[in-house]
Write a structure and sequence with these properties.
It is a single chain. By secondary structure, this protein is of the alpha/beta class. It is 46% helix and 15% strand. It folds into 3 domains: 61 residues, Transferase, Pyrimidine Nucleoside Phosphorylase, Chain C (Transferase, Pyrimidine Nucleoside Phosphorylase, Chain A, domain 3); 247 residues, 3-Layer(aba) Sandwich (Pyrimidine Nucleoside Phosphorylase, Chain A, domain 2); 88 residues, Aldehyde Oxidoreductase, domain 3. The strands form 4 sheets. Strands 1-4-5-13 form a 4-stranded mixed sheet, sandwiched between helices. A 4-stranded antiparallel sheet has the order 6-9-11-7, sandwiched between helices. Strands 10-8-12 form a 3-stranded antiparallel sheet. Helix 8 packs antiparallel against helix 9. Bound molecules: uracil (URA).
Amino acid sequence: MLTKWLIERKRDGAELLPEEIQALMRGYASGEIPDYQMAAFAMAVVFRGMTARETAAMTDAMMRTGEVLDFDGWPRPTADKHSTGGIGDKLSLVIAPLAAAAGLAVPMISGRGLGITGGTLDKLESIPGFNVRLAIPAFRRIVRDVGCCMIGQTETLAPADRKLYALRDVTGTVPSIPLITASIMSKKLAGGARTLVFDVKCGRGAFMTTLDQARGLARSLIRTGQALNRRLAAVITDMDRPLGAAIGNAVEVAEAVEVLRGGGPAEVRQLSIELTARMAVLSGVFVSFDEACPALAALLDKGEALEVFKRMVAAQGGDVRAIDNTARLPVAPVIRDLPAPHAGFVADLDADKLGRAVLALGAGRRLATDSIDPSVGLSRLCPVGTAVEAGMPLAHIHARGVTDAGRAEKQILAGIVIAPERPAERPLILETLDSPA
Ligand code: URA
């Protein structure tokens, strides 16, 4: 079968057969199909889209270009959560140990930050010694012994996705719901979890800026996962404003630890509990969402999820003393208050502007090859609705020097609106979907 014909048929809007898509993915992973042909195919998909059958076939084919982990026959049901990425999103650090404390096994394959969105692996690496590059046998052993383990995509998990995602990044072919679905889903399925819960972020600080786009992606993920025999749910959550009071790496680990101790910002706790509850109910650990939520809240309040997190940190080579005392996490040379310019109510926090300010401080990457500074970022960010007096701290800026801190101050203030009236409350969870309809 000639690759050129398949590209032409997709360009002209035809539906490809599952075996044709399989041949394309296998050929690309093995190097038989060159980048220029795959880039042309991806661009044809951007314009023509894919049917549900094609998307499922592409996901399955990409997953099968590498190792597919199998936890069948294990005593605990397996589940994983995936976020499409946002500003201040440290939920995985809470959800993996919380789900494990509730009786699930969580083999979590996480990603790195790129652009304004942070990455779970970068956050974990701010814990001294923490290793996110474990080989698969060690990963399996820790999932079995501790209940959860968090690593990056290895060379052997969905290698066609690694190659294709890098190609899409430089050929203008990232924004396509079927390609995003196949990319996210192929590596999650290769990780072996039978239940998947997606947190599709929506708003100024997210990949999907409108509810329609977020819904389109959520439905495509559910449809594809169900076609491949997984149990799924998707929750669309607000990312117009950042999540929680910390944005960065070490500062977000510290906030996640607060939530694991039973405290922390209410919205981080609420969303952690609700997403974990969906994983647990779909997996059969609880009979209903209403039963799951208080039981999970109790696991946070009693410190049981924190104990699991500490065991996972130790098993992955991390220094547990930095969890017992988060002052031992990397500390920025300059930490200073951001004073409110005038009195009023915090009426808006622009996730995009705050994300860009934190990226400029050095907490994120502009290019996939950039390195990051684990110590910098923002903490104690006042939530929307807070009443402030002039000069009162709106946040703490953690910077490498006074020049960086001064520049960040201006950028952050440009993303905060202080108004005379208290703003109306907005929901954090915009929609929940458990079927593609
Ligand atoms: N994240 C992924 O893993 N793949 C995409 O295509 C987009 C976001």
